[in-house]
Structure formats: C-alpha cells, structure tokens
Amino acid sequence: MLIMFSVLAAAYGMVYYIAHLPGLFPVRSVRLSALPQKISAEELMLVMRSEVRGNLLTVDIKRLRQSLEKLPWARSVSVRREFPQSLAIQVEEHQAFARWNNGVRLDGFRAGLVNQYGEIFFAESKQELPNFIGQDGTSVEIAQHYTQFNQQIAALGLSVAQIALSPRHAWQLRLSNGLVLELGREDMQQRLARFVTVYPYNPAVQAGSVRYVDLRYRNGFAVSGLVKS
User: DSSP assignment of 163-210, as one string?
Assistant: First the structure.
C-alpha cells in the first residue's frame, strides 16, 4: 500500500508539474462566438489580462466567467478550452427593455434597467425606454403586464410610457400622450379594453383635455384634470 501510494503521489506530482509548464499549451488566442454590441473590446481585454494566468490547462475558467459576467451589459457568459491554444467565449448581452424606478440608484453611478426577461441590471443607456415602477421582486410581473397592456393601447396609436405597480398591487399607466390611467388591482385588462373601446368616441380625452382617467368602476370610468381652453 505504501509503495502504491508513493507511485500515485509521484505520478500526480509529475502531471501537475508538466501541466504547469509555462511553455505547454499557452493561451495564444481568444475566440468570440459573436461580436458584442454593448460590451467593448477594451472591457473584454481588461478582464482577460487580469484573469488569464498560466496555460490553457491551468487557467481558472470559472473565475474568468464570473469576472466577465460582472461587466454591466453581460447577462451570461460561457467559456471553454479549445486545444491546443485557444479559449472560446460566448457572451449573451442584456437587451434594454425599460428603465427601473426612473433609473435611480442610491450610489448614483449606474442606472437601473430591465431586460427583455424582466431582470434588473445596472448600465448606462441613452435609449428612449418606458419606465417601470415597482417594489423589489416585481420586475418580471411588470414586464409581462407591460407587454399585454401595450398591445391593447397600440390599437389607439399610443404606447405605455410608464407602468407602476403599487405596494398594494394596484396598477397605473401613463400613456405616450401624458394621459394617466388608473386600473386598480383586478380585471385590469377588461377595464383597459373598455377604455380602448370608448376612447374614439370621447373628444375631450382625445384632444388632451383630460389628464387622469379612473377605470376602477364596474360600468364606466371617471375623468379629472380637465384643461381649460
């Protein structure tokens, strides 16, 4: 047993030594499956220079992946070895879908954004995006309802500029023309459908004379914020 253990230890030591030889399988190139649109080559190279140490056998793939995923626009990253001397990297970037809580973050450094899956991430964007307002853990639900509500409103040639979900789970919309719709906590799509049906026949609402519409009524809705002509 002692002889067998000594042989195994010696073999392991030899393999370890050979694997860590700097001239063996050096990392000479990095291959990207697709060119990122939001992440710059400079950002990628900075991470690569910091994290790629040793050779192709000894480079810490997990650590490299985690470091790349810390880049603002990186949603997920996969890294694999391609022998004899390359690393293959695939980056999935966030696609900005909306701003989160007016893009305000306590550290004032980066703005909160929501991607197409309803996930919150922090990056800078100059895109014109709708605003989502809600509590922690509600971004996915808000993204799903935004898509549904926006499809309904599109029939009027308008879009949802802001969607808010209150702590009491009540929904409110602000449309692209500035009109605010109060939907409440139940039957939101039915209430919005009723508004879409009536909208073409209400000149005051169409003309922008009304600022606020409360749809939380069984058989109608209330308007307020009338603008004097």
Answer: EEE-TT--EEEEETTS-EEEEESS-HHHHHHHHHHHGGG-HHHHTT--
